[in-house]
Amino acid sequence: MSESLHILCDRWLGNTGPQSDIVVSSRARLARNLAGARFARSSTPEDLKRVHDAVAAAISAEPIFSEFHEIVLADLSAAERSILREAHLISPELERHTKHCAVHLAPDASISVMVNEEDHIRMQAIVTGYRVREAHRVINEVDDTLTRHLQFAFSSRLGYLTACPTNTGTGLRASVMLHLPGLVMNGDVEKIIREIAEHGFAVRGLYGEGSNCTGDLYQISNEVTLGKSEEEIIESLLGVLDQLIVRERDARQSLFNEKPVFVEDAIWRSYGTLVQARMINSAEAIGLLSRLRLGIERGHFHDRLTHHDLNRLLIEIQPGHLMAMRKVAEETELRDAARADFLRERLIDIANSN
Amino acid sequence: MSESLHILCDRWLGNTGPQSDIVVSSRARLARNLAGARFARSSTPEDLKRVHDAVAAAISAEPIFSEFHEIVLADLSAAERSILREAHLISPELERHTKHCAVHLAPDASISVMVNEEDHIRMQAIVTGYRVREAHRVINEVDDTLTRHLQFAFSSRLGYLTACPTNTGTGLRASVMLHLPGLVMNGDVEKIIREIAEHGFAVRGLYGEGSNCTGDLYQISNEVTLGKSEEEIIESLLGVLDQLIVRERDARQSLFNEKPVFVEDAIWRSYGTLVQARMINSAEAIGLLSRLRLGIERGHFHDRLTHHDLNRLLIEIQPGHLMAMRKVAEETELRDAARADFLRERLIDIANSN
């Protein structure tokens, strides 16, 4: 299972999308619960099974879902569940729970419908590049389609009801993963992040809540789901992101003009460590790989390394993927050694021709 | 001048000597002052000139000095004076002063007789590897020869008189430069260094007093010059060094047996940074190069990098040498970039074939 799983999971990375030099990916997710059923956390196994079956029936009834693939979490090993989380297809919450939990995946893995997460349904669309509206449009279509078969818990005063009040209202969370090396290197990033947070947006690392920003990668999403329309939420997020992208682009340009050797040094040192280390943990690898993205923009790697390659690598170096690909044991030291070997094999050919 | 100077200066590195995996070099120096002349720091220019001329006359009178080369410090640029200091042929003290200062160098630069340093004469023998006795024998011969022509300030109670009381007595300072990566990596080095210091030995970095230990390189010398014979000083230093060398050898063996990947990782990461950096300062370069010494012992570089190569590199990456070889300006940033280019050119061929 796990071998095909890790290949399936990375399919949404098939291309890089618009503004991929700064925006790695865009996501939109909706939280929904079935009317008349207890929230998952206070459910009996029978309740959970009923929710599972109802969602499965809705999905199998609709032609647009005909190619979807259901994965039952209880059928997976812990390593396989990690693979799904690492590829951003299920939440850490769903990874931890297995009882009657499932995920329905689109053939290209760009849509996932999680069942019996904190909410009965968490549906997500993920695409590469700066395409928040597209992700939102896609997930709305999924939502509309499911609505034909399922009745969602809804209050005319509050909107959609959710297990955690922070999701109540639209149930919408839109987010992007940004690569901000310019603002990190010029030292502005912390101030900007604080400003963004004060305006009601959450800033997180590569793997959501609780993960610190790793390398130059920042995940930004709306905090507010209540009292605003979905359209307003998307609009205000895009307003912030548009500005942030301009500032990152300016920061890079200034660095390239004023401190070209400083930038080159940072890129090539990262490359040197990635290619020569014999043990490397994920956090360090993410940080170093994220610096290589800047090298692509500077033309250092010609066509031998692309944004797409890097997006894949950021996922492939995660423990679950590594264990599946390299048949390596769970011990941290062995995994760190396998990660270093993997990175060396993949990156050594990007010959240093500058 | 400066081009030939940096080539001349590195000649004493011609071979690597015994135990060169741990002992980079051995030195012995004697401090002497002319009887009846004021110490240099309270001298008039005329006094200094008289000392200079007296020493020059003594040297030109003796056949064993016939191939010696006199360098008058006032004839050199600041960069050229740095070259002499970086190659360990003159002291930082002599580098700072030029008036009537000179150094008489043996053809292979293994003997230098400094004139009008803190003392009228500082004579030094420097050899590669663990050869303290040889350095001591050589410098004693130089001393004996000069004694035929010069009368040194001597008290039957105190011994040789020197400008600073810490050198009075024998005027002998014997020292070795040690490479201790095993004890650095296993964390024992600080405790051992403290013990050694408590027994009356000084521990310094690559460039003498005031320089911190850089990388895994430690310079150890006797503190006491008074109340002991030269033979006793050498004996007690060798006693400490013999033990230290055994401990370093044990530490390396344990690391190689117990944590081979950890050691390999440290070596190859250092290599990766040295080969890929675009700016690098001397201290970092010394630290990284010193790690490569361990790679030689592990057979990582086959015959493409030797202890001799590394000994040269440790000197060549110093600012003065770099400025002479690469015709680079004195600005730190430019020099750091030139150092990175130099290291890349020199090291890139040590292909990673492991």
Task: Walk me through this protein's architecture.
2 copies of one chain form a homodimer. The model of chain A has no long low-confidence stretch (mean pLDDT 90). The first copy, chain A, is built from 13 helices and 10 strands. In chain A, 51% of the residues are buried. Chain A has 2 domains: 251 residues, Creatine Kinase, Chain A, domain 2; 95 residues, no CATH class. In chain A, helix 9 packs across helix 10 and helix 10 packs antiparallel against helix 11. In chain A, the strands form 2 sheets. Chain A has an 8-stranded antiparallel sheet with strand order 2-3-4-5-1-8-10-9. In chain A, strands 6-7 form a two-stranded antiparallel sheet. With 354 residues, chain A is α+β, with helices and mostly antiparallel strands.
Name the biggest interface: A-B, 20 and 20 residues
Shape of chain A: globular
- State the CATH superfamily name of the largest domain in chain A: Glutamine synthetase/guanido kinase, catalytic domain
Please give the order of strands in the largest beta sheet of chain A: 2-3-4-5-1-8-10-9
Report Rg of chain A.
21 Å
Order of helices and strands of chain A: HEHEHHEEEHEEEHHEEHHHHHH
CATH architecture of the largest domain in chain A: 2-Layer Sandwich
Counting helices, strands and paired strands, the structural category of chain A is alpha+beta
Low-confidence stretches of chain A: none
Strand content of chain A: 5-15%
Question: What descriptors fit this protein?
Answer:
homodimer, Creatine Kinase, Chain A, domain 2, 2 domains, alpha+beta, 13 helices, globular, 354 residues, two-stranded antiparallel sheet, eight-stranded antiparallel β-sheet, 10 strands, 47% helix
